[in-house]
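Input record, target 12 of the design panel.
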């Protein structure tokens, strides 16, 4: 069957972040929070900020486990509430915006690596007439910042639409995030393929809405619900994989 729409995952498919990045981003965020709050006459000890950051992670994890998400403003509010439940309401809107910006930007200072074949592959598919969209779960870095990364790598222009979980309140593998993305570009599951690395979020998620799936993985585990249609090692192989699917 003809493929018309291709949705693509972000983390582990297009861009890659090392295991040490979380600690590095945490340090940068909390350094800025400490400076901003002290400058506003609301000093908070570093140990309290560390504990609050970790508490916010537990809070976010509980939400994410239900396949739901919250905007970045709630991330910052959760840290502040863990310091003092009344603190968010005591801060001026301009100060909250400064904290949100400080929370969002660390990834831009030391950006993650990108699949070096991604742009060529995506451009080739777009030139063939496919509609490309991106579907991504976010962690601590919001979608608004991840779009800046995509633009930096000249990938944003390849996509007709980008969906980030913090902006729509839904996380993969929930079928709703796939459905709303397809709807945004006029696509249908029967003529769409999802491309991603994760066996649950991407393979099971795409399968759950009736899409075909291409998994980007050196090796893939197989089960009835986690078997992709095609496995490729890198995105440079994506145009050929799409052609293979259409020929079946």
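The sequence produced for target 12 reads:
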């Amino acid at each position: 069957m003809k493929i018309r729409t291709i949705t693509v995952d972000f983390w582990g498919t297009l861009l890659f972040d090392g295991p040490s990045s979380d600690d590095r981003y945490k340090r940068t965020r909390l350094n800025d929070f400490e400076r901003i709050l002290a400058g506003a006459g609301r000093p908070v000890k570093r140990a309290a900020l560390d504990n609050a950051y970790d508490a916010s992670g537990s809070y976010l994890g509980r939400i994410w486990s239900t396949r739901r998400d919250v905007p970045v403003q709630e991330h910052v509010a959760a840290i502040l509430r863990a310091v003092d439940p009344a603190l968010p309401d005591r801060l001026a809107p301009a100060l909250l915006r400064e904290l949100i910006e400080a929370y969002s930007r660390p990834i831009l200072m030391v950006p993650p690596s990108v699949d070096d074949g991604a742009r060529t592959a995506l451009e080739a598919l777009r030139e063939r007439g496919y509609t490309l969209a991106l579907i991504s779960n976010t962690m601590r870095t919001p979608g608004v910042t991840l779009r800046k990364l995509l633009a930096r790598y000249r990938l944003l222009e390849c996509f007709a639409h980008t969906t980030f979980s913090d902006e729509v309140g839904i996380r993969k593998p929930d079928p709703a995030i796939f459905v709303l993305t397809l709807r945004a570009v006029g696509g249908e599951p029967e003529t769409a393929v999802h491309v991603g690395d994760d066996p649950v979020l991407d393979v099971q998620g795409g399968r759950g809405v009736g899409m075909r799936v291409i998994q980007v993985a050196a090796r893939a585990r197989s089960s009835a619900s986690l078997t992709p249609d095609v496995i490729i090692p890198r995105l440079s192989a994506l145009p050929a994989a799409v052609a293979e699917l259409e020929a079946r």
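The first strand starts at residue 5 and ends at 8.
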